[in-house]
Amino acid sequence: MIRLVFPLLLVALPWTVFGGPDPQPRIIGGSSVDIEDAPYQAAIIVDNSAVCSGAIIKSDTILTAASCVYEYSIDYIQVRVSTTSRDYDGTGVLLDVCGKITHPQYSYWRFDFNLALLTLCDRLETSKTIQPISVTNSVPQDGAWLSVSGWGSTSWWGSWWDRCFGSLPSQLQMAWVTVYNREQCAKDRAVWFHLWDNGISGYTMCTNYGTGGCSYDTGAPLVDDGKLVGILSEGGCTTKPDVYASVIWFQSWIDANTSPDTPSSSTSSSPISSSSSPTSSSSSSPTSSSSSSPTSSSSSTSTSTTPSSTTTSATYSTSVSSSSSTTASLGTTSTSTIPSSTSTGSTTSSSSTSTSPSSTTISTLPSSSLSTAGPTTSSDTPSSSPTDAST
């Protein structure tokens, strides 16, 4: 009798404990939405299966997580947009990928540089269901409400259940999440994940437990008021915080590896903001980016964005357009003035005046530094929360 009952218990236990698949699948804590609510959304297809999400950032460029595509040739990668359906059902637009660039500092063991750019073979035409999303110019505060969307697992046991039984949602899901303190996130993640340095740094941000991404949501766009804030590096499946690459610190890398966008229709290229937000968002989400976000200047003086405390001085630099340049410096808060080159090809010297609460430093920025895509070693990673140098 015992020999008969014991195998039955082994079969019944997972169902009893985990409750079986969710009869109304959705991103954990989220709900189904129309593609018009997230026209920047892209499904990353690898070997004919939707495995990740991504964001349309230019008419020919998708930003996703490097872990989704790092091991695959572009011959096996496609992108589908303009549809809420996870599985190919004839809806949407399916596109081939002609180029792939992963961040040079990406590592499987870390979260902070988990980004990849996919170059489409054909440019997208903007419409109500296809619109590039701009990268944010500010860092959301702890407790702010943001949205995340994807086709991933809908229950915390999804990381194994969905792989075995294929119960992933067929429709695009969106959930509202709150920004979680990064230092506490690193402590919480150390318990659940790596006991060594796991790359939760100034280049990352976290969202709280309870709702958010899970298995197959990797690469999902995190959005604040119609601006791209993060790309999901790993979902917590409600048992631990979600970790995102904070894209504001990678703008120069994106610019250095993409071509200028050209609108292909009269439709506005700015993303549509979702109109349904939590009732508490008005008190906890940023109402204006003017107080904490870098602002563009019509003069030749550029604005630099820096983490608040660090001992290094590696620099993210955007390419120079006309006579202005925007930099995100790690180590000092600086305002850089970089004269443009003369029409004869000779280049004037470039100077940078750095201002910090504790000291003032005058240094020279060589023109070659403008192509720098970020720190060259993980030791350059800031441990504190990024803050705006303009405030």
TrEMBL record:
Residues 260-391 are annotated as: Disordered. The keyword Protease applies. GO terms for molecular function: serine-type endopeptidase activity. Residues 27-259 form the Peptidase S1 domain. PROSITE patterns: TRYPSIN_DOM (PS50240). One of its GO terms (biological process) is proteolysis. InterPro entries: Peptidase_S1 (IPR050430), Peptidase_S1_PA (IPR009003), Peptidase_S1_PA_chymotrypsin (IPR043504), Trypsin_dom (IPR001254). This is Peptidase S1 domain-containing protein. It comes from Drosophila gunungcola. The lineage of its organism: Eukaryota, Metazoa, Ecdysozoa, Arthropoda, Hexapoda.
